[in-house]
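Question (not urgent): is this output format expected?
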Amino acid sequence: MRTSLPAVASIRDFYAFEQHVKTALKLRGRDMVPEWYEVPVFYFSNPAGVIGPDEPVWAPRGSQALDFELEIACVIGQDCRDVPADDRALEVVAGFTIMNDWSARDLQRKEMAVGLGPSKGKDFATTLGPELVTLDELSDRYREGRLHLEMTAAINGRIVSRGNSGAMHWTWPQLISHASRDTRLRPGDVLGSGTVGTGCILELSLVHGSDRYPWLRPGQQVELEIEGIGTLRNRVGT
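Got this back:
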């Protein structure tokens, strides 16, 4: 079943794709962190910064490095706490949607250098949509805690990234269980997967060069598509 998204209560954005984590750390001159394999970490983003499909997005003041991030997200559908890390965790999920965790990389770089954040490099905009798709519609693609769905990102109609949500290191039951540990999850809480490998300009520019993959510019349209869920579009404001 497909429905509109409920009001967003909170956003926890995880770091569940190993390829993206390795690339991000490499850009900071660091090797893979062993602790990443021990606990599914996340940061809190700003529910007041959520914008809808087809709405314009602007880089925050002082930023010249606007980036997209291709993610899949689940939305919690019922109050829960201390959810087990097995398929029973899916019982508290209202559905899945596409998430674009917009990022101002120049602001984020300074924040992360201090060892706290991200904050202003992230909280200016997050897009969710276009619909909420229940698990029963995607059940044939669910295996071993993961949804195996093709994911693509395009800029002005040119596909720049391809990935699959089945590449998540951490499973959805593990993410839900960790998010609910010792606290209450409520309807409308959003859990983002983190960026799929190559699902942002930050990674693409490292692999292919910043000349080929410059930061987003005013007027460009970003389209994120996930098989079985739909296409999420936003244009950079002019």
